[in-house]
Design goal:
Shape: elongated
Oligomer: single chain
Distance between the termini: 77 Å
Number of strands: 10
Number of helices: 2
Helix content: 10-25%
Order of helices and strands: HEEEHEEEEEEE
Largest sheet: 5 strands, antiparallel
Radius of gyration: 24 Å
Strand content: 15-25%
Mean pLDDT: 87
């Protein structure tokens, strides 16, 4: 009987330990998943998941790197917030060096709760900056050679190119006076419609 009671206590302790665990999910920048073209100082958001009732966040730590591997292998970081005593998990401002144009930045967050538990680091997420300065834009406007006429179909601009090297990844920076739909080798680029949306 005593042996069974001890076994029951161990099982209850393990269940309580699992129930007390917390995790971080839904890491977002500017309320978007892994966004491209960010042209503002980024703000971080996330959600804490906890099995037990009455569990709240009491602190967080954010870390940022220029490569995902740096987060996973403990390499030098671009910035770390350190442990910040706060229950904030929405629109938390970035406090590191100013982001550079056309760069990808990787980040993670972990949190502490009011029971002294600390979560594991969230899965690595990223944001990519847009072209932040006017001088970063090297392209020229492409225009049709005839006057605008509401009776004509929208113009299509095409250019064939052959890459000189194998491409691992590439980013096209596109905007328009109006709307555009971009394709590469006949494949539609992105999943957005009515791009670029409202713009000045």
């Amino acid at each position: 009987m005593k042996k069974q009671s001890s076994l029951l206590l161990v099982l209850l302790f393990r269940v309580a330990l699992v129930a007390a665990q917390i995790s971080v999910t839904a890491p977002r920048i500017e309320n978007r998943d892994n966004p491209l073209g960010i042209d503002v100082a980024p703000r971080f958001s996330w959600q804490m998941l906890a099995a037990g009732r009455g569990t709240v966040q009491t602190a967080y730590e954010i870390r940022v790197a220029t490569r995902a591997e740096a987060l996973l292998k403990g390499a030098p970081l671009l910035w770390s917030s350190g442990k910040v005593a706060s229950d904030a998990s929405l629109w938390v401002p970035y406090g590191g060096p100013a982001p550079q144009s056309g760069r990808k930045y990787w980040w993670q967050v972990r949190v502490w709760d009011n029971h002294g538990q600390v979560s594991a680091w969230s899965a690595p997420a990223f944001w990519q900056t847009g072209l932040l300065q006017t001088g970063d834009w090297k392209a020229q406007w492409i225009e049709q050679s005839f006057p605008d006429d509401s009776m004509q179909a929208s113009p299509m601009f095409r250019k064939t190119f052959v890459p000189r090297k194998k491409i691992a990844s590439a980013t096209a920076y596109i905007t328009a006076h109006g709307l555009y739909e971009a394709r590469i080798n006949g494949q539609r680029v992105g999943d957005a419609y009515l791009t670029p949306g409202w713009t000045a």
